Amino acid sequence: MDGSISATADRELVVMRVIDAPRRLVFKAWTQPEHIARWWGPQGFTTIHCEMDIRVGGTYRFGMRSPHGTEHWKRGVYREIVEPERIAFTFAWEDANGQLGHELLTTVTFAEQGAKTKLTLHQGVFETTEGRDDHVIGWTSCFERFASYLQSIAQGE
Fold first, then answer.
1. Using one digit for the tens of pLDDT, what is the confidence trace for 8-17?
2. How far apart are CA 67 and CA 80, in angstroms?
């Protein structure tokens, strides 16, 4: 894997990955529901709901099902969209009653590296280092799915 993970502070996370696809395609796959629904979430998870109003102030809500059948819901608000360079949004897990948990700010940048794209995700501030570490596992797996999905598009799946 061409990437890295670091904790910039006890309760912040940075995940970087070089994706073998042009920046415009990578940005498009992050901002269109028909794409996100095919790769969002850790490996083995299935997207069961994908609602996006991708504009500053717009909201999103995603539902995913684990391989064991557990549903996980998250939602947030888009804070910044600079095509094709950056997206910033809030991120909070939703409980069974629709109540939001601790809110994080997630910023994703897309930098050209020749025909490839350097994708950098910054997320924080977590309530605990354990929460941050759980997201390390989730984002690492999600980025694997994302890279595979983009490769399948490039090969004309």
1. 568 899 999 9
2. 33
